[in-house]
Structure prediction request, 262 residues.
Amino acid sequence: MSVVQLADGDLHYQLEGPAGAPVLVLSNSLGTDLHMWDAQMTAFTRDFQVLRYDTRGHGQSLVTDGPYSIEQNGRDVLALLDHLDIAQAHFCGLSMGGLIGQWLAINAPERIVRLVLCNTAAKIGTPEVWNPRIDGVLAGGAQAMRDLRDASISRWFTADFAEANPGQVEHIVGMLAQTSPEGYAANCAAVRDADYREQLGAIRAPTLIVCGSGDPVTTPEHGRFMQARIAGAELVEFHAAHLSNVQAGDAFSQRVVEFLRA
Prediction:
């Protein structure tokens, strides 16, 4: 297992693809791990060295006391890049990963070549949404995570996709059921507190915004809000719910590769 030793624990990562190729960092959504990108790996590793990692509180990475912040998660990415001696990279993040991408592009612009923001927003949800979820997960522990697993299917996938692809759905939602309740709750707080609506104009990296037409969490309207404020940003919309990389599959991968190679 490959890890970078942070001050408070180990951050798990995988680096795959041709040595010397441009680096593409992939950042997972809340409640998943680096394997949420499995469907993209064949396409992405043709042209890029792909650096996947488990965000703090997820997968095989460290779980520390919360609450976390998106800045903290962003600094974990910078520590990972420094550890691997990567001066610059493309960055693709989905949902919470997209918030991390926004923080990096605003606060460490010299490290980001091109930016892909998937199924995300400059501000996701409200305290009225997040606080009961945090309290419920901390009180209910592993059982609460299993309950979230079932509730998340309708947010993450459209009904027709979930019915037709039970294996793919189970692969993804199984990650949520295995996520640390403490790590999940700490990252819920990070998402709750992040708000980049007034800072989007500072992003100068070429940016692609990916939306899902059936996404009930971060809607195409959220995507258009970001596009209007990030100079030159492109936007693509797929028939998908919140996890467009899984549901749109090859079409998602092709569009991202086209953008990164432009």
